[in-house]
Design a protein that fits this description.
It is a single chain. The N and C termini lie far apart (about 35 Å). The protein has about 250 residues and is α+β, with helices and mostly antiparallel strands. The strands form three sheets. Strands 9-6-7-8-11-4-2-1-13 form a nine-stranded mixed sheet. Strands 3-12 form a two-stranded antiparallel sheet. It is globular, with a radius of gyration of 18 Å. A hairpin with a 2-residue loop joins β7 and β8. The protein has a single domain, classed as Glucose Permease (Domain IIA).
Length: about 250
């Protein structure tokens, strides 16, 4: 950072957090199990550029899940990865993200990374921290069961959010409880507990939680993307999975 340039406070914190995570990437525990030597990843595209996403598939969880599974099987991939900074057609399936009247802008811009895979896939804490809050956001299309952890790294506080997990996972924790690096904290939930989605993990990094508990927007309006991107750095900094993605 150029010391002669005055930056807003949130940009300074963002740069400091990114630098701290990069410095400590080697000690971060994988968020999901993955063997780069024997397993594959594939990128999943949920923008309007994906012509296979017909309206009937978008609106039907069973068909959407079948499309995802077929893509994984075709590419011999354990997980489908993607979503950060993606303008998605996918959210038209839920009134949660749609405009409440004809003049409001719907929410379509995704702020986390999704890891699509089998229900029951374990999820681990990338570093030690404390349970900040828990929630069951049980609207159709929402996170479903949700866990938020608070971390400190190089003196910088930040949060990680785990959405679409099992209801049993959030019932197993209490606010203020400490978790260790590498501890299993959750698993991919089934559709009845994960907001009616095919099984996956929504993983998001947040700097300022804004007094929210058990929830934080994972999807925003396109017109608000700069505000939210300034508060939610790319989770790939922690996940470190993109380098293993093979072309579909």
């Amino acid at each position: 950072m150029d010391p002669g340039v005055d930056l807003p406070y949130n940009q300074i914190i963002m740069q400091e957090l990114i630098a701290a995570i990069k410095k400590n990437q080697q000690i971060l525990h994988p968020v999901v199990p993955f063997n780069a030597g024997s397993e594959k990843l594939v990128a999943l595209d949920f923008t309007d550029a994906n012509r296979s996403l017909s309206p009937d598939i978008v609106e039907n969880t069973e068909k959407l899940g079948r499309l995802i599974n077929e893509t994984l099987e075709k590419n011999h991939a354990r997980y489908g990865i993607g979503g950060y900074g993606e303008l998605r057609v996918l959210y038209s399936r839920s009134q949660l993200f749609n405009a409440t009247n004809g003049t409001e802008e719907p929410r379509r811009f995704h702020l986390g990374v999704d890891i699509w895979g089998a229900a029951g896939t374990p999820v681990f804490a990338p570093l030690g921290g404390m349970v900040h809050s828990l929630g069951f956001n049980n609207n159709s299309g929402d996170y479903g069961a949700t866990l938020i952890l608070l971390h400190q790294l190089e003196g910088i506080a930040f949060y990680t959010l785990y959405g679409h997990i099992r209801l049993a996972d959030i019932n197993a924790f209490k606010e203020g409880q400490y978790v260790s690096r590498g501890q299993q904290i959750a698993a991919f939930g089934e559709l009845q507990e994960n907001g009616n989605w095919p099984p996956h993990l929504h993983f998001q990094v947040i700097i300022d939680i804004e007094l929210k508990k058990g929830d934080y927007p994972g999807v925003c309006r396109f017109s608000e993307k700069e505000k939210y991107l300034a508060n939610c750095p790319n989770p790939e900094l922690i996940l470190q999975l993109e380098k293993y993605i093979t072309p579909a």
